[in-house]
Amino acid sequence: MAATIRAAENIKIYKPKLILGISNLHQVDLKMNILFIVPTPGYGLKEPGKKLKRRIAGLFPSLGVALLATILKNAGHKCKVLDLQVNPCTPEMLLQEIKTFKPGAICLSLLTASAYGGFIIVDLIRKEEKDVPIICGGQHVSLFPEKTLLDNKGIDYVVFGEGEYKLLNLIDAIENNKPVNKVKGIYYRQGNKVLATENAPLIQNLDELPIPSREFFDMNKYIPVPNQYKRLPVTNLITSRGCTYRMCKFCNESGPLHTNYRRYSVERTIREIKYLINTYGVRDIYFWDDEFVFDKKWINDFCDALKVEKIDITWSCCAKVNYVAPEILKKMASVGCWVILYGIESGDQTLLNNIRKGQTLKQIRDAIKWTQDAGIEAKGSFMLGLPGETPELARKTIDFAIDLDLDFAIFCLTTPYPGTKLYDEFVGKDSIKDVDFSKYTSFAPIYLPEGYDNREQLIQLHKEAYRRFYLRLGYLKRRMKLLRTKDDFLKYITGVKYLIKSKVIKSTGL
What we know:
Largest sheet: 7 strands, mixed
CATH superfamily of the largest domain: tm_1862 like domain
Strand order of the largest sheet: 2-1-3-4-5-6-7
Number of helices: 17
CATH class of the largest domain: Alpha Beta
Number of strands: 15
């Protein structure tokens, strides 16, 4: 959540008030200091000879880390989050932060894109801090727990999968010198061996978890890009875990870490929205669920609750095209839904079938039309470089995106991430035979389909996609007509700056 950059200084910045609606808050004696570090793809620390940079926009707080820190704080620990995405620092600054805070444990949450940088940070810390326990969690280390500990001697523990109660129990064991082998769901080192404890069951009733406090973040540093908000301040919110479909080859929900679908109740979700409004003055929410519109009853009840409670927010979400219908879209629009992101992926049915997307081109066209007819903007995400794709089929996808007349389009380079079926299918092939996870931190192609001559050909098509979609005269005229206020104008100035400065758009040549 954030106000926009200096061009929009007229927008009020809201400061945190008393936290409301977070369960189990009570006065307790402080225990250990716990430092959470959120690495960023590409390291996040200043390297010799390079300027200290941070991404200009498009970031939101890590809700997973926020929830972990909230739970530990409620248990009496003092928690601090150092998010290197918005607070980049030099190695010296990081080490000084640790010396000043004196953590009893340091926790890092690692995705594949940030794992390489995270491991470098661990080595840096371990050179100065020999005894502080270092705990890693997140998707990447959950996929490679044993390898993580064997390859990174500075890491003491890996928390496997959902970490809320596992981390709490591990911290309790460390603090009180209890045997860690009684803590479920962790991996740890014993001499030269890596041992695993009994796994813990999934949390079935998400309502028992507290609302993730945003007090651990400087919210004004999280600057959205224009297509991420209608009004400011804006923040993110997640109402569910898991996926109902679990078939897409490119998604980790189809892999070994997939979990059963669970969702917060409507009542619990409304409480969190009220907390965000009352504490931070939030006016716009970006729902980060993989699939927000799956359960029609939940959506109907949610829309009804927004109306009955007279909650004034605008909001956006993600949806699968074959889960939406005209009537539910109209109802969503009536209570503030202004844009929906659809994972469209390709304009060729054979390629869609190959990745088991489970949708047809007709369903895509219908969903986009119904969405825009309901008064909701439609955003589409596409994948270039899919298995079996040729440059001709890539241009077919670009043509399809243009023909759909979407309000926004995102073009991604296909990446076989660990934990997906694509990774399992292609990890042995020459294109990614020797997996170097440092390559996952860039926007360069990691996987190259056999239909392409070389990587440069795919990079040029990526550039072409953005140019052809966004530099159309008709598209530019339509977007200009939507500028109604000074805030709208300032919002798009921010967008232009993001296009110029962001690494994503640099790789496309815009």
